[in-house]
Amino acid sequence: MSCLKGLKYTMCVVNFIFFICGAAIFALGIYLLTSSKFSSLLPSLQVVNTASTLFVTGIIITCVSFLGFLGALKEKRCLLISFFILLFILMLAELATACLLLMYEREIDQFIEKDLKTGLETYEAGRGKNVTDANDWDTVQKAFKCCGVKNYTDWKDPVPPSCCIHDPCPKNGTQFWNQGCYDKLKVVFDNNLLNTGIAVIVICIIEVLGMCFSMTLFCHINRSGLRYK
To answer: What fold characterizes domain 107-185?
Structure first.
C-alpha cells in the first residue's frame, strides 16, 4: 500500500511540473504569435510555424498532465485510463512522425530548398514596400552568416546589406557571405540531430513510465476498490 501511495504522489508531482512547463510553452507560443512568423522565409509552412507549434504543444501538455494529476490525486479510473490512452496516442504519433521523416528525408530537403527560393522571391517582391515580414531573410542571414539559398547570386541587384561580411557594406560581391542559408540551416539541423534523437527517446521513456504508473494505479483501484488513507 505504501508503494502505491508513493506512486500516486509521484504521478501528482511529475504531472504538476509538466503542467507548469506546458503553461509556459503555451504562453511563449502566444507571445510568438504576435511577433514575426517568418512566413516570407518558408511560405508553404506559414501555418506550421514555431509559434503555432509551441501553442498547440503547450495545450496538449497542459491537458494531458492535468488528466494525469487529477486522475492520480482523486483516484478516478476514467481519468487514469484517459491519461493512458492519450499518452499512447502521442507516442504512436511521435514514432510515426520520426519514421516519415527518415523515409522521406530527400523529398523534405527538396521541398524546403524550393520553398526557400519561393520565400526569397517573396522578399524581393516586398522590398521597398510596407511588408510586415520583409525582415525575415535579413534576420536569418545575419544570424547564420549566410546569403541567399545557395549563395549571394540568388539575389537580384541590389544584394541585401544583411549579406555583407563587414559593416558598412562595401559594393563588392566578394564581401558577401559565400555560403547559402539552405546549407547553413542543414548543417545546424545535422549537428543537432543526435540531441534531437536523444530528446525523443527520453520523451518516449517518460511516456512509457507514465502509462505504466497510470495503469498500475488503475488496476489497483479497479481490483481493490480501496482508497488511500
So the answer is: Cd81 Antigen, Extracellular Domain; Chain: A (1.10.1450)
Contact status, residue 9 vs residue 218, Cβ threshold 8 Å: no
Are 88 and 211 contacting, i.e. CB atoms less than 8 angstroms apart?
yes
CB 120 within 8 A of CB 136: no
Can you list the residues of the chain whose pLDDT is less than 70?
Answer: 1-2, 32-51, 126-136, 170-174, 225-229
Give dist(CA 123, CA 147) in Å, integer: 13
Separation between Cα atoms, residue 64 and residue 67, nearest integer Å: 5
Give the contacts of 100 (CB within 8 A, at least 6 positions apart).
none
- Cα distance between residue 81 and residue 66, in whole Å: 13
What local confidence, expressed as pLDDT, does residue 65 receive? 92
HEC string of 181-228 equals HHHHHHHHHHHCHHHHHHHHHHHHHHHHHHHHHHHHHHHHHHHHCCCC
Amino acid occupying residue 92: L
Give per-residue pLDDT as tens, 122-169. Answer: 777 766 554 444 466 777 888 888 888 888 888 877 778 888 887 777
3-state secondary structure 16-38: HHHHHHHHHHHHHHHHHHCCCCC
* Nearest-angstrom CA–CA distance, 51 and 185: 19
Domain boundaries, the chain: 2-90+204-224, 107-185
The answer for residues whose C-beta is within 8 angstroms of residue 144's C-beta and 6 or more apart is 181, 184, 185, 188
CA dist 189 → 22, 29, 77, 128 (Å): 25, 22, 42, 32
